[in-house]
Amino acid sequence: MADLTLTAKNPTSVKADALVVGTCSTSDGLAVVADQLPQDLVRQIETLAPQLGLTGAPDEVRKLPAGAGVQADVLVLTGLGERQADGTFGAETLRRAAGAALRGLAGTASAVVALPTADEADLAAVAEGALLGAYAFTRYRAGDAAAKAAAVRTIEVATPFARSASARTAVERARVVADAVHGTRDLINTAPNDLYPATFADAAKAAVKELGAKGVKVTVLDEKQLAAGGYGGILAVGQGSSRPPRLVKVAYAPAKPASKVALVGKGITFDTGGISLKPPAGMPAMTSDMSGAAAVLHTVLAAARLGLPVAVTGYLCLAENMPGGNAQRPGDVITMKGGKTVEVTNTDAEGRLVMGDGLVAAVEEGHDVVLDIATLTGAQVVALGNRVSGVLGTDEVRDAVKAAADAVGEQFWPMPMPEELKANLKSKVADMVNSASDRAGGMLFAAVFLREFVGSTPWAHLDIAGPAYNEKGAFGYTPTGGTGVGVRTMLGFLEAAAAR
Ligand code: BES
Ligand code: MN
Ligand code: ZN
Questions:
Q1: Is residue 231 scored above 90 in pLDDT?
Q2: What residues does ligand 1 touch, defined as CB less than 6 Å away?
Q3: Whole domain around residue 56: which residue ranges?
Q4: For the whole model, what pTM was predicted?
Q5: Which of 19, 137, 388, 442 is deepest in the core (most CB within 10 A)?
Q6: Are residues 76 and 216 in the same domain?
Q7: Residue 236: its H or E element
């Protein structure tokens, strides 16, 4: 990850390849938001903005020659949009503007960032956004292509708070958060021939060592241990693949924890749909069907690195959903962990099968609250689109997740679990079906199914099907490919739980 430091120096006097400043939209057109820039340079940019096609809108990033009076070679303008009523821009706007600028600087070595920070929360957002934007996945690129795509290596953030102790703490948190989000993105972006259940489990062990997450214990259940433990859902989904499934438990247990939280993640390393095969068009994106498990792993590691006084156990439900000769069939009846039976009416509704087992395992071990996170339904994308995730569950936990998401700048929206959908669980032969004949309300039905495995533990389900993987253009601090969505919300939820 990029190396990020704070500086109290005038940013124009800092030697770097690029200087990043903000622009905003006003009734008089574009305004440059940087007191320290040479006055004539500011006047030139503001006067020529219409001819340069610049408005100061969010995600508008433009590189210009910096000229005399600025030590950096290149000046980067990044749009902040309109000021809020109180004259500031807000944390998420700053986070995105910093991220968009650093993303635009791929292939450049160093940058100094001089965005307006009204307080230390703004500074934290700028630092976090810059690090989140300075991301590149170059594992499968050679030579020149890798160098061109490489993220900025050195970032200096110019701020009046450079010497404050709490600013330093905020920057340390930003580093941990960015490591977690980057680690999540890396796993998602790893091709499915390289990342399958066994290698995902190895990656979990390696990440604990690499990130120096002290006090974290990783336990891996292989297919034999899964059979002994009664994990019928994970085994059924994994049986069509030559690569057997795994359950990885990642436990962080501080002394005298304020509460005990379980995080359960869907880790389908590739989802072909199984015998209920998916059509070709949407299939390549199913390399991202393990985004929930990746987010869980890195959230637990981040909680440990921050030393949160909350016990957090992650359950990564890992399987590859393939239509091999031993694959489960539509019509199979399976016995889930805990003993409930499921008639598998559609093998493409596999996520809820692995998650049901994971939820039972979490609940058996006794937690104050359980969150689960999954790229669970296409219906989530239909209902909320590619940038807003759904959250369902026990009213209080669901609302706490929504509040945590709002605070960290991730978009989640609460969805209901209407009582009438319970009837759609009915099977002619088993306790329930995994896929209802009625497609309406698919995201809600999936949550109603999961609820069957949660018992009375307070719980929320995060459906990140759309937002987990960005198949469109990059924006703000969000790259194409794996986004890492959910990590910041779950970490924020844990921090709030620690404070309660
Ligand atoms: N992994 C998919 C859901 C998904 C769809 C994630 C699009 C990301 C983007 C999941 O396993 C799935 O196939 N769900 C089915 C369920 C249906 C068969 C009840 C779906 O949503 O179509
Ligand atoms: Mn599926
Ligand atoms: Zn799936």
A1: yes
A2: 271, 289, 346, 348-351, 375-379, 381, 435, 442, 465
A3: 3-163
A4: 0.98
A5: 19
A6: no
A7: helix 232-238
